[in-house]
Each structure stands twice: as C-alpha cells, then as structure tokens.
C-alpha cells in the first residue's frame, strides 16, 4: 500500500450488497417498483473514485507540498550548535528536553546540579553534541553549553579587564582550581596573595574576586589572579601615602619580611626597607635578634624616591645617639666592662653600651713584649674589663687597656728575674727563628733556635717543643727599655763539646745511623746525641754502593770543629784506609824477605872458594829471584 493512497474500509461491502440484489431480481422476475426517494447519509460526500485495492494516489505537486509542510514542523540543527530546550520530563538519572527536533534529547541529571528546583516547563540552553549517535539518539549537553558560554564571557572580560567572581573548587599542583561561570580556571599559588601562601587548603570552597590575566585560545585555558586586585588596591594606597611622605615623618609599620641585610616593613599598602645598620645603635648580627615577623613598630622616614617608589626607614633614629647621652661614670681612667663585638688583627672592639665601643689595641693586652694574636686572645661575645685610656666624644672614639688594670711587672724586673736565674715558662708562640716563652703574665722572652740544644741542629723550633708545653729556661739578658728577655735552654747544662773533643778526635771510628739524606750528603746520628755530616763521596761502600737512609754503619771522624759545633765523618775512608794498610804491610814483608835472601847469598859466597858448574847454576837462580823481588817492590812503590 502506497503512502500516497487512502484506504476506504466500507467500499468492498457495498459492492457485494449491490451484486446480491441484482441477482435476486433476475431470478424471481418480480416487477420493478418505482424508486423510493433516498435519505442522505455520511458516506454521500465520500469520494468513491478508488481502485479495486481501495487506495487513492497524490500528484507530484501535492506530494512536494505535503513534504515541505512536514519538514517545516522541525527545527534545523548542526553539531556544536547552542539551542534553547524545554524540560518535558525528569527521571532519576536524566532530564528530557524538547528542542523542536523530530525526537527529544536526554541530558544527565548531574549537569543540572547547580540548578535548584528544576521542573518540567523550565527552559535551558544546551549544545547539540550529535544529531544522531550510533544508536540514532539525539545527544545534548548542558555542560558543554555552559563551558562555551563561559569561555566567550571570559575572553570578553580578559579584553575589558572586568573583575569576575569565582569559587575555589579544589587544590592542584602549584595552585588552585577556580570555577568561573561554570568553567575551570587556574589560579597559580603566586597569584593568590601579595604575601607568600603555604596553606592552599584554607581557600578551597571560598568565593573570591579575580582578574583574568591570561587566556589560551587554542586549548581554551584561562589563568586568573586575586593578587592583581590586591596590588591595584595597594598601588592606589601607595600613591596616596607617597604623596604625603616627608623626611623625618614617623609611621607605624608591620614587619613583613626579614633578610640578612634588613627588614621589609608594610606601611599600609606601601613597603619600606629598614636596613640592619638602622635598626639599633649597637652591633647586631641579624635583624631577627631585634625584630619578629608581623611585629608592629614605629619607624622614621629617612629617605624616599617618588619614581622608584623606594622608602628607607630607620628605627634607631627614634632614640638619641648613645654617645650624646654618655654617662658621666664613663671617663678617662675609669674601669668599664664590655662585650667583644669585632676582632681585627690590630685589636678588638668592646661594646660598653649599645652603640658605644672602645678599641683594645694588641699592645694594650699584656705587659709582655711578645707578639699577641688578637684573634686567639679574644672570642666574639666574651666580656672583658678594661681601663679607659682616651675618650673623644666628638669623634666618638675610645681606647681601652686591659694590661693597665694591673701594675707594670717590668718596673722591678731585675729583682724578680735576674740574669742567670732559672725559671719554668709556657711556650706561647713559635716562629722559624725562636720560641716565645711566658714566665708570668706580662713577662716573657725568646729562646733563639740556636739556644735550644748544644748537640742538635733544628730546621724549625717546632721539632723540639710545641705551643702550650712547659720549658725550663735561664735568663741570659734583660732589655728593660724594650721589655725584652733573652732566654736560653741549652745553657741549663755545660757545653758537652768541651769533653767530646778527645772522644771524637780525627781518625776515631764510631758507629752511626743515617737519619736523613739530601743532594749534598747525609746527617749521621752519632753516640752521645751528636750529629755528624757525611758528604756524598764519603758514603761509598767497598762494593760500590752507598750507605742509605736509616742504615747503620761505621764512620771515621775526618773533621772536628768545636767552635762551629761541626763534625764531618766518612765511611769510605775506613775501608780505603784498610786497603792502604794491607798494601803497606805486604810491601814491608816483601822487603824483609829480600833483605834476608841477600844476607844468605853473601854467606854462601863467603864460604865457597871455587864454584862448580852446579853451584853456579844455583847461584844464577838465587840471583834471578832477588831481581824479581826487587822489581815487585818497586812496582808497589
């Protein structure tokens, strides 16, 4: 059956009834009665021009007209289009929307959580995601519609600079997520407040005002800032405050940040810097010794720059300079007590009062004339008593002395430490040329390196003693004017060189050990603590090798100088002398044999009056032997 035909359900029955009546009339031959006037019925106006299949056909013109009417009853849609829809039904999970399309659309009820009291008949805006999905259903989204509208508004607001209101929904890495017009935007941690923020959780759920500072059209991402609004307010306050600033003006500020070089103060929308040198008249190592974060204090304006908007502040300037109100008890000759606040090579500074310091020069530490290292004597923070030597309030300078708190021990030095007296002192300092020894506080002297030992030679005094060790000394000389004592250590004993001259006479042989070697020779440790020197050529052994370090061998004294305290020894001379002595002994023995033979020959010649041929032969042999021995003796010579 065609869609263009209309079916008449009664046509077939009427046709069958007419055929039966005609058949009955023909069989009975009943005369035909006059027609009776018919009564009009509902079927009289029906178009009975239908075919035998009870259908009717439309022309092409009619068909096109009716198709157009049918299509005009629906709206035309495109994917991604925003359109208004009416709520026609609400289920437990979805909202049914009529958007004038040939079918209704379903939207998840979760997308309407922000709308309280949603009901049938409400009109909402949605986006056409797909006109027909794989199942032929209309796919709509209110969330996508909100995001699109939100993005359009955000882009416009970014251009105009308008302030928006958003709600912080969650925390993320590096910042917060803010819902603006239903779209998620990013709030970096650095843009939350002008002050550093460490606890992001405190902002979750809060509704705040923001400014759109950055957008990305490609990925539809926006960055917002709350700090920008605060800064704009602060900028307005800053301009107002700077316009009213004057040098010397006292303001109340809050400690905003503390650094090594000072503290930043919040002056009510304007920041100022309080340098560490302007915090206190006294010395401080760090501003945190005086200030604390969020502390409110009064400060004075020292200087400001309108263009750079920099303000220098002072705290100590609110009180008089301590030198201007110095107590009368601090005067020349008075005794004061102070804390070490600075140490230099030339002395140390003691803080008597905050902002009032005096210098203790190294020469005023002790009466002794020995060198004093201020950095070893003083320690930062230690307290010392000192005498005020000079005081100049105008230049704000004070010189102090520690040694003048006691009497000068050098005034009667000859009585306490006469020449030749023996004492025990403490090694205070060691230099390459000597050892400084303190006998009593303020009294000391130096032992020259040559006066440490009679027998040993030292390259450095540290080979003999160490700082802090006790050492016995004898007073060799007193220089009262220059406050110097000449001390000796070896003089505590008699000079052993006087008695060693015979023991280590030239030619004597002693056992020794090579203690060290250099390019010139070796130092040999000899008996009685003496040291000798052996030149390289005198270290040669009989086998051609040389005596090595730490090796023990016999050495012959070839030089002994008592005045210079010098002994020169040789190992080579020992075996060379032995070889020479052996040759000399052999020569003497050969000479003795020759003399004996000559005497025997003379004796024989005297007894024999006439030689026989045999005797002459024997004599010839004796004569030849004598000549050979004489030749050997001459070769040895």
UniProtKB/TrEMBL annotation:
<feature type="domain" description="S1 motif">
    <location>
        <begin position="507"/>
        <end position="572"/>
    </location>
</feature>
<dbReference type="GO" id="GO:0022627">
    <property type="term" value="C:cytosolic small ribosomal subunit"/>
</dbReference>
<dbReference type="InterPro" id="IPR050437">
    <property type="entry name" value="Ribos_protein_bS1-like"/>
</dbReference>
<feature type="domain" description="S1 motif">
    <location>
        <begin position="161"/>
        <end position="227"/>
    </location>
</feature>
<keyword id="KW-0677">Repeat</keyword>
<feature type="domain" description="S1 motif">
    <location>
        <begin position="333"/>
        <end position="403"/>
    </location>
</feature>
<dbReference type="InterPro" id="IPR012340">
    <property type="entry name" value="NA-bd_OB-fold"/>
</dbReference>
<protein>
    <recommendedName>
        <fullName>Small ribosomal subunit protein bS1</fullName>
    </recommendedName>
</protein>
<keyword id="KW-0694">RNA-binding</keyword>
<feature type="coiled-coil region">
    <location>
        <begin position="580"/>
        <end position="607"/>
    </location>
</feature>
<feature type="region of interest" description="Disordered">
    <location>
        <begin position="1"/>
        <end position="34"/>
    </location>
</feature>
<keyword id="KW-0175">Coiled coil</keyword>
<comment type="similarity">
    <text>Belongs to the bacterial ribosomal protein bS1 family.</text>
</comment>
<dbReference type="GO" id="GO:0003735">
    <property type="term" value="F:structural constituent of ribosome"/>
</dbReference>
<dbReference type="GO" id="GO:0006412">
    <property type="term" value="P:translation"/>
</dbReference>
<dbReference type="Pfam" id="PF00575">
    <property type="entry name" value="S1"/>
</dbReference>
<dbReference type="InterPro" id="IPR035104">
    <property type="entry name" value="Ribosomal_protein_S1-like"/>
</dbReference>
<keyword id="KW-0687">Ribonucleoprotein</keyword>
<feature type="domain" description="S1 motif">
    <location>
        <begin position="248"/>
        <end position="316"/>
    </location>
</feature>
<keyword id="KW-0689">Ribosomal protein</keyword>
<feature type="domain" description="S1 motif">
    <location>
        <begin position="420"/>
        <end position="490"/>
    </location>
</feature>
<feature type="compositionally biased region" description="Low complexity">
    <location>
        <begin position="11"/>
        <end position="28"/>
    </location>
</feature>
<feature type="domain" description="S1 motif">
    <location>
        <begin position="80"/>
        <end position="143"/>
    </location>
</feature>
<dbReference type="InterPro" id="IPR003029">
    <property type="entry name" value="S1_domain"/>
</dbReference>
<dbReference type="GO" id="GO:0003729">
    <property type="term" value="F:mRNA binding"/>
</dbReference>
């Amino acid at each position: 059956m065609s869609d263009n035909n209309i079916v008449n359900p009664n046509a077939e029955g009427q046709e069958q009834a007419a055929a039966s009546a005609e058949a009955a009339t023909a069989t009975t031959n009943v005369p035909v009665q006059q027609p009776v006037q018919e009564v009009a019925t509902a079927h009289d106006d029906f178009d009975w021009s239908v075919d035998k299949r009870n259908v009717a056909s439309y022309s092409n013109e009619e068909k096109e007209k009716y198709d157009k009417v049918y299509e005009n009853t629906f709206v035309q849609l495109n994917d991604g289009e925003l359109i208004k829809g009416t709520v026609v039904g609400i289920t437990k999970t979805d909202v049914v929307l009529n958007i004038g399309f040939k079918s209704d659309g379903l939207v998840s009820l979760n997308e309407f959580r922000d709308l309280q009291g949603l009901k049938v008949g409400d009109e909402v805006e949605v986006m056409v995601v797909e006109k027909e999905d794989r199942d032929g259903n209309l796919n709509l989204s209110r969330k996508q519609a909100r995001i699109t509208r939100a993005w359009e508004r955000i882009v416009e607001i970014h251009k105009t600079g308008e302030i928006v209101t958003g709600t912080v929904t969650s925390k993320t890495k590096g910042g917060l997520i803010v819902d603006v017009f239903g779209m998620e935007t990013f709030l970096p941690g650095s843009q939350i407040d002008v002050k550093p923020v460490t606890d992001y959780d405190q902002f979750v759920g809060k509704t705040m005002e923001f400014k759109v500072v950055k957008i990305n059209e490609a990925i539809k991402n926006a960055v917002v800032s709350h700090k920008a609004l605060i800064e704009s307010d602060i900028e307005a306050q800053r301009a107002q405050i700077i316009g009213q600033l004057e040098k010397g003006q006292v303001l109340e500020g809050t400690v905003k940040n503390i650094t090594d070089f000072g503290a930043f103060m919040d002056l009510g929308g304007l920041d100022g810097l309080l340098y560490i040198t302007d915090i206190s008249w006294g010395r401080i190592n760090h501003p945190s010794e005086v200030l604390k974060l969020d502390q409110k204090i009064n400060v004075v304006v020292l200087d400001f720059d309108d263009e750079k908007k920099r303000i220098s502040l002072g705290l100590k300037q609110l009180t008089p300079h301590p030198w201007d109100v110095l107590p009368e008890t601090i005067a020349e000759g008075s005794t004061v007590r102070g804390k070490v606040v600075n140490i230099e090579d030339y002395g140390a500074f003691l803080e008597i009062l905050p902002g009032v310091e005096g210098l203790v020069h190294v020469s005023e530490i002790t009466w002794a004339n020995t060198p004093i290292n201020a950095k070893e004597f003083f320690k930062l923070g230690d307290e010392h008593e000192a005498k005020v030597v000079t005081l100049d309030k105008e230049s704000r300078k004070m010189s102090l002395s520690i040694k003048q708190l006691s009497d000068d021990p050098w005034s009667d030095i000859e009585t306490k430490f006469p020449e030749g007296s023996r004492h025990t002192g403490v090694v205070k300092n060691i230099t390459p040329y000597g050892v400084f020894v303190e006998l009593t506080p303020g009294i000391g002297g130096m032992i020259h390196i040559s006066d440490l030992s009679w027998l040993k030679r030292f390259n450095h005094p540290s080979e003999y003693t160490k700082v802090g060790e006790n050492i016995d000394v004898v007073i060799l000389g007193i220089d009262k004017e220059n406050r110097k004592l000449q001390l000796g250590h070896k003089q505590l004993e008699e000079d052993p060189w006087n008695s060693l001259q015979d023991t280590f006479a030239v030619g004597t042989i002693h056992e020794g050990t090579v203690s060290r070697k250099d390019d010139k020779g070796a130092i040999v440790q000899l008996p009685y603590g003496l040291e000798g020197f052996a030149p390289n050529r005198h270290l040669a052994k009989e086998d051609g090798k040389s005596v090595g370090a730490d090796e023990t061998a016999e050495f012959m004294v070839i030089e002994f100088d008592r005045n210079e305290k010098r002994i020169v020894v040789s190992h080579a001379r020992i075996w060379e002398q032995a070889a020479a002595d052996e040759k000399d002994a052999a020569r003497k023995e050969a000479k003795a044999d020759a003399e004996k033979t000559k005497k025997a020959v003379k004796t024989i010649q005297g007894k024999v009056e006439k030689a026989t041929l045999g005797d002459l032969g024997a004599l010839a042999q004796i004569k030849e032997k004598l000549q050979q021995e004489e030749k050997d003796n001459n070769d040895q010579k």
